[in-house]
Design a protein that fits this description.
Mean pLDDT: 89
Strand order of the largest sheet: 1-2-3
Number of helices: 6
CATH topology: CBS-domain
Organism: Paenibacillus silvestris
Order of helices and strands: HEHEEHEEHEHEEH
Shape: globular
Oligomer: single chain
Protein name: CBS domain-containing protein
Radius of gyration: 19 Å
Number of strands: 8
Distance between the termini: 18 Å
Domain CBS: 7-63, 94-151
Keywords: CBS domain
Length: 151
Amino acid sequence: MKAKEIMVRQVYKVKENDPVRDVIEKFIKYRISGLPVVNERNEVVAYISDGDIMRYIGKHDDHVFGTYMYTAVIKGDDEEFDERVRRLLPRCVMTIAQKKVIAVDAEEDIEQIAAILGKKRIKKLPVVHRGVLVGIISRGDVIRHSFQSLL
């Protein structure tokens, strides 16, 4: 079975210049947790997930680094949680999205897709054809198509 046979063709996505507000709105509206980020040619340039949002709005502790002769303190958050949340919304999606994206070709075998999802511990894979986004595959899609005929 190939990626093109099991992928979801209706892919929710954001453009590389969109604000994070657009991401959050789609997360809420479509009950999803991640989106491919595409350029004007519909090529995947990044991926943003709920984890990226959590890392930004979550508490950042102070870090102290020291040696015998030198001590440095990297300050954590000065602002409150609500302020971090408000400040995130107008930011460009590319400032927090993951730019190293793992994607699969539409002709990729389901066995290889399962291996990538498992080994890389990711939830979804963008599917591309000639570099252009054509679909998305989740862990659930692989499980459904792998076991449906056996149950």
